[in-house]
């Protein structure tokens, strides 16, 4: 039995959670017993397959037989699903008996898991799989991963289910495991069957024994015989079964032997497969090596060609190196000039700052002058007041003095009392003292005014002197700037000449650049992306800076930051370009170093071969020396032999002379017979001969020996001469080879020296480039940090800008307030216009100087920009080349698009021609319909005239009847004047009913006529409704053959309109009505009839040439229209 923890783990597993998610009520599955019942699984199976093959799943209520039936039904349905719908073969099936009897055992848990796995595979592969996938998506992520693993076990592992698509991909190991599993199942089921048979046989034997024991011996022999027969039958069956067992065991042994044989074959085949795989791998390796060797051979050929090219280009490289050094020197000079210009710019900025400070001080002085002027005006007003008071006091004092004199005279004359004299004296003394005080104050104030005027004049004179000094300084600065401008112009001309030279050099360099364009294009695309990104960033920054400018015009720091950002971005772009150029140079140099290393290896090999040849040469020299020594010895021997030959010749000559002395001519002795006769005839000669014979024998021996030696020596001489000739030829060849080797050695040494120098220079260049690369990398990092700092500064500036905008708002408010205050001060400023005019003249002169300075600054900036443009012209030319290449590619793409568009247009043209033909056919049909409608309208016209006569007669009759009725009604009115109101209403209703009856009769007659015409129209042509609907779109009053009637009665002041058309799709239109003439005799009745026939309103296409004749006919027939208006008054 399985433990409780195993069952809980299984219930909390992914399969059971998925099963709960598929159920409508997840609380139904709480315990393992609910799952072991089989009903829940069957419900999920019904969601997968609503119409299963096998039914009969019922709640088991703890009955194991019902469980077995339930699980057997579920397993059969799952098997049919896999085999029939999914076309798959189930290899492993759960045991329904084990699930029914022992569901809580370990094997039962495994079978339940297998059943749920098979159910999950069906759910994922069925037509309703989207629903189950949505249920899976509602689970947690871990559960989803586990369910995906379970699905892979069913669909991909080939251990539980075999798919038809994966038959070829099934490996031998999987097939072997499946066979082992099937054999084990077969053996297990065979043992189970044998055990069941043994149990049956044992039960039969025990039953027979019991029967033998229980049955009486004498009474039931017939039954015993019957049982004996059955026993014999069972024994025969047992024998048969044993024989079958033996046969099957033999077959098993044979199959085991075959299995072992197959295993051996499989092992052999595996070994052969491994050998074949190894051979295939080796062959692949050999093929790869062959391909690699071919590629190497091709590369060698290409490299040889490139070596020749590079050797040719080495001279150009030296020229370019010299040119690069010159350009570097020029660059250094330009950098120095740039530094000088930057210093001058810093000085100019300082001067500008100083000028700004001076302007601020000038504004302060202006404010002080204004204040002093105001104070002076106030003092002048006070002085005027004091003057007026003084004049008044003088007048008063004079008047008082006159009064006092008059009073004194009067007092003297009248001799009044002393009290009056004392009062007049006091008054006069007081007036005199007050006048003296006022005079003193007047003098003091006049002195103060004069002193203030003198101080103001001195102050203004000092300010004017200072301003003149500053003016002189500024004029000197202007002169300096003009000189700098001239220098810059000269430098600009020099730069233009250098740029022209550089352009010439670029024309030469473009030939080399064309080979590297393919590599540069990829990098340029990446750079263009970075550039676009940076440009977007720059545009965003510029937009933000423009907003900041618009918000605060006084913020010059933002402009400086913008210029810094632009300069830094340009520097970044330049550094990127230089980095890319230097990386390309590094790659080139690495390639050249590799090529040089290869050349070095080749040269080392050539050196080794040369050394071998030198060793051979030394050996040949040794051999040559040996041969020379031999030749000297042979030469000595030859000289000795020559001497011996000379001696022998002398001896022969002596013999000849002795023979001559003896009187024997040599010619006669040439014949031996004559010589013997002569010698024998003379005895003296015989004596001499005998004497000489003894000597001749010795000499003969010596001569024979000498002849032999001579022959040998001649042979040796001939051999030695041949050897000497061969040795001389070899010596000449060796000397030539030696001279060639010496020349090659010298060339190799020179090439080695060159290669070593090139290697040293390349190593130095590599080191320099690596150092520059590291420095530029550091610069790049520094620039990144500076960019980050600038971004932070930009954010801070934004914040400051916001603050300044708020401050600006406050300042604008203050400004508005100041404007209001300035309006009040305009009156005071008007009085001091003269001083302002003087100040304005000074200010205008200062502004002129400022404008000149700004113009000079702008010219300086323009010159600097032009120099920058000249520097960037090279990069722009490269960019133009790239853009032209891109344009060429774009034009090619456009050409391809235009060709495709032409093809599409040709197809569209053909389709339009087909449409035109179809429209022509349609127009012909419309013309036919038009002619038919013409005929129909003419028929309707004739019919209409006949009906018109009938209706006129009817209308006249009705009018007569109406008049009679009206007369009767009027008589009735006169009679019923004394009657109540009820009878009057009856008469009115009667009149109304009569009028309605008359109108209904006319409308019914018209309706019947319209129905007849509609029937005729439907019988004549089925396409009239389309024509009438088209005519209804136009604002025509009616269709062919229609009538409009309007009835008007004077009592009710209303009109009834009845429009009846054949198509019933026309909008209601207001016909032309005529105003009735009211007669006093009785209520008028207006009847308005109109028949309009408009013919030929079918529109034709504008550009159809086939309709030219039909349009002429149509224009002639369009004028046919008939209008009939009938008015009848009563």
TrEMBL record:
Alphabetical list of SUPFAM superfamilies matching this protein: Hook domain
Domain Calponin-homology (CH): residue ranges: 9-123
Keywords: Coiled coil, Cytoplasm
Coiled-coil segments on the chain, per record: 228-389, 435-620, 710-866, 948-975
Compositional bias ranges of the Low complexity kind: 1108-1130
Subcellular location: Cytoplasm
UniProt-listed GO biological process terms: cytoplasmic microtubule organization; cytoskeleton-dependent intracellular transport
Compositional bias segments (type: Basic and acidic residues): 1008-1031
Record's protein name: Calponin-homology (CH) domain-containing protein
Species whose genome carries this gene: Clastoptera arizonana
Lineage: Eukaryota, Metazoa, Ecdysozoa, Arthropoda, Hexapoda
């Amino acid at each position: 039995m399985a433990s409780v923890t195993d069952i809980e783990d299984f219930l909390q597993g992914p399969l059971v959670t998925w099963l709960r998610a598929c159920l409508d009520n997840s609380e139904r599955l709480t315990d393992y017993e609910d799952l072991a019942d089989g009903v829940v699984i069957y419900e999920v199976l019904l969601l997968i397959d609503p119409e299963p093959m096998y039914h009969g799943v019922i709640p088991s209520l703890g009955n194991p037989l019902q469980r077995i039936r339930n699980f057997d039904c579920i397993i059969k349905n799952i098997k049919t699903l896999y085999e029939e719908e999914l076309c798959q073969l189930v290899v492993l099936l759960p045991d329904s008996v084990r699930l029914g009897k022992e569901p809580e055992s370990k094997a039962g848990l495994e079978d339940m898991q297998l059943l749920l796995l098979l159910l999950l595979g069906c759910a994922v592969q069925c037509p309703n799989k989207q629903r189950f996938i949505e249920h899976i998506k509602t689970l947690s992520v871990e559960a989803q991963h586990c369910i995906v693993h379970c699905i892979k076990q069913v669909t991909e592992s080939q251990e539980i289910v075999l798919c038809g698509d994966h038959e070829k991909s099934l490996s031998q190991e999987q097939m072997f495991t499946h066979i082992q599993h099937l054999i084990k199942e077969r053996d297990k089921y065979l043992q189970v069957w044998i055990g069941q048979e043994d149990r049956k046989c044992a039960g039969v034997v025990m039953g027979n024994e019991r029967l033998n024991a229980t049955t009486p011996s004498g009474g039931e022999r017939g039954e015993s015989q019957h049982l004996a027969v059955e026993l014999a039958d069972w024994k025969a069956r047992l024998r048969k079964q044993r024989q079958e067992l033996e046969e099957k065991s033999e077959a098993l042994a044979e199959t085991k032997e075959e299995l072992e044989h197959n295993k051996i074959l499989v092992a052999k085949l595996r070994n052969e497969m491994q050998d074949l795989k190894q051979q295939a791998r080796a062959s692949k390796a050999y093929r790869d090596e062959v391909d690699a060797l071919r590629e190497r051979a091709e590369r060698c050929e290409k490299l040889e060609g490139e070596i020749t090219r590079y050797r040719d280009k080495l001279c150009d490289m030296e020229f370019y190196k010299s040119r690069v050094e010159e350009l570097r020197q020029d660059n250094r000079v330009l950098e120095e000039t740039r530094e000088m210009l930057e210093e001058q710019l810093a000085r100019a900025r300082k001067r500008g700052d100083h000028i700004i400070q001076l302007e601020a001080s000038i504004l302060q002085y202006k404010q002080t002058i204004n204040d002093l002027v105001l104070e002076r005006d106030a003092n002048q007003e006070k002085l005027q007041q004091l003057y007026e008071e003084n004049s008044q006091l003088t007048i008063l004092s004079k008047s008082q003095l006159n009064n006092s004199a008059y009073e004194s005279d009067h007092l003297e004359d009248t001799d009044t009392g002393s009290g009056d004299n004392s009062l007049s004296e006091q008054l006069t003394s007081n007036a005199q003292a007050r006048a003296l005080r006022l005079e003193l104050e007047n003098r003091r104030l006049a002195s103060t005014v004069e002193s203030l005027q003198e101080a103001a004049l001195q102050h203004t004179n000092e300010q004017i002197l200072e301003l003149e000094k500053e003016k002189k300084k500024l004029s000197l600065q202007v002169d300096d700037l003009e000189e700098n401008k001239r220098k810059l112009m000269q430098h600009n001309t020099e730069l233009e000449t250098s740029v022209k030279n550089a352009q010439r050099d670029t024309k030469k360099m473009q030939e080399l650049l064309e080979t590297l364009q393919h590599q540069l294009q990829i990098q340029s695309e990446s750079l263009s992306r970075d550039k676009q990104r940076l440009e977007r960033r720059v545009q965003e920054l510029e937009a933000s800076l423009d907003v900041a400018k618009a918000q605060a015009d006084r913020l010059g720091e933002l402009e400086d930051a913008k210029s810094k950002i632009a300069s830094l971005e340009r520097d970044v772009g330049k550094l990127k370009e230089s980095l890319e150029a230097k990386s390309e140079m590094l790659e080139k140099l690495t390639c050249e170093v590799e090529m040089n290393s290869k050349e070095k290896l080749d040269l080392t090999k050539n050196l080794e071969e040369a050394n071998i040849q030198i060793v051979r040469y030394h050996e040949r020299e040794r051999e040559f020396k040996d041969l020379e020594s031999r030749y000297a010895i042979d030469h000595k021997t030859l000289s000795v032999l020559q001497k011996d030959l000379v001696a022998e010749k002398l001896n022969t000559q002596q013999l000849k002379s002795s023979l001559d002395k003896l009187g024997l001519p040599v010619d006669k002795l040439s014949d031996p017979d004559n010589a013997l006769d002569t010698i024998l005839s003379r005895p003296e000669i015989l004596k001499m001969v005998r004497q000489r014979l003894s000597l001749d024998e010795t000499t003969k021996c010596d001569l024979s020996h000498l002849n032999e030696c001579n022959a040998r020596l001649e042979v040796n001489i001939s051999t030695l001469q041949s050897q000497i000739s061969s040795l001389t030829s070899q010596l000449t060849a060796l000397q030539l080879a030696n001279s060639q080797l010496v020349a090659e050695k010298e060339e190799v040494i020179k090439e080695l020296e060159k290669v070593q120098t090139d290697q040293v220079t390349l190593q130095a260049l590599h080191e320099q480039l690596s150092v520059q690369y590291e420095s530029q990398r550091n610069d790049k990092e520094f620039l990144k940090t500076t960019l980050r700092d600038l971004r932070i500064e930009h954010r801070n500036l934004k914040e400051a800008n916001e603050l300044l905008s708020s401050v600006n708002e406050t300042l604008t408010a203050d400004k508005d307030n100041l404007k209001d205050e300035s309006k009040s001060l305009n009156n005071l400023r008007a009085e001091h216009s003269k001083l302002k005019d003087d100040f304005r003249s000074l200010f205008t002169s200062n502004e002129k100087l400022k404008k000149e300075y700004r113009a000079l600054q702008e010219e300086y900036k323009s010159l600097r920009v032009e120099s920058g443009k000249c520097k960037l012209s090279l990069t722009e030319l490269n960019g133009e080349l790239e853009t032209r290449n891109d344009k060429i590619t774009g034009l090619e793409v456009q050409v391809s698009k235009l060709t495709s568009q032409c093809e599409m247009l040709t197809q569209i043209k053909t389709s339009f021609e087909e449409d035109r033909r179809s429209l022509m056919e349609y127009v012909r049909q419309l013309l036919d319909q038009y002619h038919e409608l013409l005929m129909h309208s003419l028929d309707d016209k004739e019919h209409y005239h006949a009906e018109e006569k009938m209706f006129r007669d009817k209308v006249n009759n009705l009018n007569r009847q109406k008049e009679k009725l009206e007369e009767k009604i009027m008589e009735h009115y006169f009679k019923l004047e004394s009657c109540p109101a009820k009878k009057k209403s009856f008469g009115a209703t009667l009149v109304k009913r009569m009028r309605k009856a008359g109108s209904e009769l006319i409308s019914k007659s018209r309706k019947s006529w319209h129905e007849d015409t509609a029937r005729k129209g439907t019988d004549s042509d089925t396409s009239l409704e389309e024509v009438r609907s088209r005519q209804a779109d136009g604002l025509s009053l009616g269709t062919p053959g229609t009538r409009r009637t309007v009835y008007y009665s004077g009592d009710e002041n209303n009109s009834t309109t009845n429009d009846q058309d054949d198509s019933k799709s026309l909008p209601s239109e207001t016909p032309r009505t005529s105003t009735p003439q009211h007669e006093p005799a009785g209520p008028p009745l207006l009847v308005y009839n109109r028949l309009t026939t408009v013919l030929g309103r079918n529109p034709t296409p504008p550009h159809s040439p086939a309709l030219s004749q039909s349009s002429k006919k149509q224009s002639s027939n369009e004028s046919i229209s008939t209008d009939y208006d009938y008015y009848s008054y009563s």
